[in-house]
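DM between two lab members

TW: hey, do you still have the Cytochrome P450 26B1-like isoform X1 entry open?
JB: yeah, one sec
JB: this one, 550 aa:
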Amino acid sequence: MFLLELSHLSALLTALMSVLSALILLAVSRQLWTFRWTIMRDKECKFPLPNGSMGWPLVGETFHWLFQGSNFHISRREKHGNVFKTHLLGKPVIRVTGAENIRKILLGEHNLVCTQWPQSTRIILGPNTLVNSIGELHKKKRKILAKVFSRGALETYLPRLQDIVKSEIAKWCSEPGPVDVYVAAKSLTFRIAVRVLLGLKMEEKRIVYLSKIFEQLMNNLFSLPVDAPMSGLRKGIKAREILHTCMQKIIEEKMQKQQSEEYYDAFDYMLSSAKENGHELSMQELKETAVELIFAAHSTTASASTSLILQLLRHPAVVEKAQIELESEGLGYDAHSAHSCSGKENGLKCPLAVEQGEHRPLDAETTPLMNGNGTVHCAPDENEEARCSRSHIPCLTMEKLSQLRYIDCVVKEVLRFLPPVSGGYRTVLQTFELDGYQIPKGWSVMYSIRDTHETAAVFQSPEIFDPDRFGSEREESKTGRFNYVPFGGGIRSCVGKELAQMILKTLAVEVIGTCKWTLATDTFPKMQTVPIVHPVNGLHVHFNYDSLLR
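TW: and the structure you got?
JB:
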């Protein structure tokens, strides 16, 4: 009996010693891991490394980051300050918050830092895209795309863009059950990208199919860079090739029609701009740019559109104030009830003609008629038999959108409160100082858009959704250029930011001006911030046209 108990005690001691040895080994390995990064500081720089933790060997703090989400950065910022170090996804990272700090990073492109995308993203999007270009090539590509997103180009996109918005809202309002707004917003922005930017004409089934293919590409952009069967990278490449094949024929047709000086979509502007700048775009460049244009217009704008609907749900007083503005600007029910589209019986061109695949250029038969108040009514088309939305909103113009000051404030506040992208990554080209710390060459640095918006002293009560902060009486964002950076800044700022704002304003006008909506769930959803801000498990909403439109 004694020997048996002694045997059990010996086994227990052995197990305890094994556990203790493992714990000691872990502690020692963590100290060595930390020491490794400490000695890798740039010894020629007098400033110390930022405070923070490098986590555990190899994995760093990646698992903490994945499980804690936005709380990971908040807790470490509160503990270590606006500049702290960590180790994520196999790389040493310095996280940066604050206008003055991110200013140095955004203005230091090609000098202090260079853009950094995951290898899988670079492979899937292709080497000829704007996000993958640096130096002079990047400048040349931005110059070409500048014409694509110029005010003149946006003015030509707006009528078709508004048609698509009306069309999608009609679908939302016809649904007997709740609409998942995030899914619906992605459908909306995909259609805008394909039909307005690329000018592609195709059946609804084809658009749904390509939307699923593009979703497959998006789901695998941030995957392990391993090209093996069933891998995320292989799936992403396959999706890209399907998209390229689909677009090549249409691109060839467009290139043959370049004798015309008329512009109908972003591709027309891009081909013209490339010729003006002495750059002949190859077919591969055009296909990659087409996918990049969808990429740029799709996910982030869908995120912002969802956030817009969410904030309108949360703040009925904001909706009421926006409705008053629409009335005062001649976009209310009374001002245009006689012009609301109700099908063939009133002879107006139906906003949902776009659903039938129709994208005719403006001519004498379909040219919009300008009114004195800056709005446009679509000219009659006696042969139009497409189904119609109940929207009474006339065709908008850039001038009319610019007059909607409060709507503009609402959109700006949505982008401040819930910026679609929480930040951006850069690779450090040479060691530099930031907030009293060294940022070593070769490390990754992430600037935080969301944290900067939340902590900027220029914003009164930043935790409150308050569109009036952007009004003429307060103009809080005017103090300090980099306190408000939803589209980034410097030479890497979002080239399509004006298009994104135009989409959001048009959506706001149509939804606020024509719809009623209610949350379909008991509580508002939590928001996930990585990689794109979106509601966890969706935002489910009932939409109906306002009773005054019936």
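TW: got it. The first helix runs from residue 2 to 39. DSSP finds 18 helices and 14 strands in the chain.
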